[in-house]
Structure formats: structure tokens, C-alpha cells
Amino acid sequence: MATDFKTIPIIDVSPLLAKWDDPKMGEDPGVSEVVRQLDQACREAGFFYVKGHGIPYSLIKEVRNATHKYFGLPYEEKIKIKMSAATGFRGYQRLGENITKGIPDMHEAIDCYREVKQGMYGALGKVMEGSNRWPVNPPNFNSLMEEYISLCTDLSRKIMRGVALALGGSPDEFEGERAGDPFWVMRIIGYPGVSGANGQDIPENDIGCGAHTDYGLLTLVNQDDDIPALQVRNLSGEWIWAVPVPGTFVCNIGDMLKIWSNGLYDSTLHRVINNSPKYRVCVAFFYEPNFDSAVEPLDICKQRTGGTKKFERAVYGEHLVNKVQTNFG
Known about the structure:
Elements: E1 10-12, H1 14-19, H2 29-44, E2 47-51, H3 57-71, H4 75-78, E3 91-93, E4 99-100, E5 103-104, E6 108-113, H5 141-166, H6 176-179, E7 184-191, E8 209-212, E9 218-223, E10 230-233, E11 239-241, E12 249-253, H7 255-260, E13 270-272, E14 280-287, E15 294-295, H8 299-304, E16 314-315, H9 316-326
Parallel strand pairs: 1-2
Antiparallel strand pairs: 2-12, 3-6, 4-5, 6-7, 7-14, 8-13, 9-12, 9-14, 10-11, 10-13, 15-16
Helix pairs in contact: 2-5, 3-5
């Protein structure tokens, strides 16, 4: 459960990455310290910054630059990859098309999902069948994003090995049937700046993205370095700014990890408000369980929380499809 945290911790995960495939990684002092920090951050805030992650800053920046270029194109150009139910909900959505709790969000986005081939998950995956729709402009957009997705998937898997140790399990607790064949989601998002330089008196429906929790295991947020916009809610209901820290990712945990941890770790409410006159971009990568994974509290977590199962079993794919079908206007 989140606490009354006032700041979001920064965790250097490089010792974890150096030993991630060592069967005895949990015995390494450097790994143990990272695991301790992960446990504290997941308990207290559900959010933390990740540094020492090994993904080149030049690539992180290039991904944002390409995103700025795409959203700077005329609407007629962007709409060429329009999202619809027929595209498996992949592609471009215009400003106000994404809905959070009944209110249109003031952002535009490209939604991407791991490819789902026809019949891959039977009836469960029918809605999500399709391939990603990439723009032809900027010309390197597709290859750039696919390289980035590959690196984010790899990093997330390694962080999850640390989270598994933090929960008291083995490093490969989330491999195999749980998340050994992880689904992923990526949202490439643009938030228009407010009119006028003072950024005051923003009406309620000008929220870039309404308060929500993420659906899966772990999120890596790549946000513009110079525009604070992401806010995280603490236990008292205060909104704490996740101010950009150049070279880091903002990382947070999702609904499925909340269930697996039996509530030891909570998926924290967060929202986006761009008070700046500048256009802001953010690329959010969501590392998820296997699409057809049945998620229920881990035995080790039940033991640590009084022996009672606090959450019912959920199938990740059902959870995702339900959210996707209610998120668009």
C-alpha cells in the first residue's frame, strides 16, 4: 500500500543487471542492496526512477525526437495510421479520443501491442489480433521503435527478477507460465502545451491523462527532460510530481503485480497535467504477463500477508481487452 511519500526514489539497477543470470544472484551484496531498495520503493510509492539501466541515452532521446517529429506532422498525415477495432486497437488516436473514467484525455497517441496472429490465443485474443501500424514519416520510426521495444523488454525482465527476490521468491518467479513469454504494450503519447505562458487556470477536462493505474507488471516511462507533467498520488491524496531526471526511466508497478504480491505492492494512481506552454511527449512501455496467464496471489505473498488471499484470480488478456474496449470514444 502506498504511504505518504513526498519524493520518488532513484534506484541504480546496474548491480542487478550485472548478475541477472547468476543462479546465486540473490547472495551478491550489490544485488541485495538493489533488491532492498526495490522492495522499499514498491511498498512505499509503487514508483521509482531507474538509472544504470544500460540503454543508451542517445537512443532514449532519439525515440523522443522521432515522436516529436511525428506529432508535428499535419493531421491528414497522422490519420493515415488511424486506430480502430479492425486494426486490433493499434495505430493513431486523435486528441480527446482516449477516455479515462468517462472524461476525454487531452493527448494524442500511437498505440502499439505485441503482434497477435490469428487464432494465437483463441477467443481470448480475438480483439487484439493484428500487427502494429507504423508511420512512414519519420522514415526510421519503425526500426527505431522496434529496437527500443527489444531493449525495454530485456531491461524489464531483469528488473522483474529483482522484484521476485524482493517478494521473497526465486529470481525466475515470473518466468515460465507467468511472464516467460511476456506480452507488451507501448503508448507513444503527445500532450499539447497550454495556451499562454503562465499555465494557470487549467480546466478539469484539460488533464492530459486522467488518474489511473497501469494494467500489467511494470511500466518504463521515457518523458521529455524539461517538462514536469507526471503526478503520483500518495496515501493522503496529495499529487507528487515525478519531475524528469535526465537519463532515467520512471518505473511503476501495475495491477497484475498487485494481485501476484497479494497487495504487498500496490499499483499507484497517477495522472498527467502539462502546465507548460511546450508540447510534451512521453513513450510509455508496459511489460506484461503472458497474454493468457492466470494471475492470482503467490503462495509466498499470501504467507507474508496473514495467509489470506486478498484478490481473486484474473486472466491478464481478459483484463487488457476489457480496458482497451472501454478506453476509446
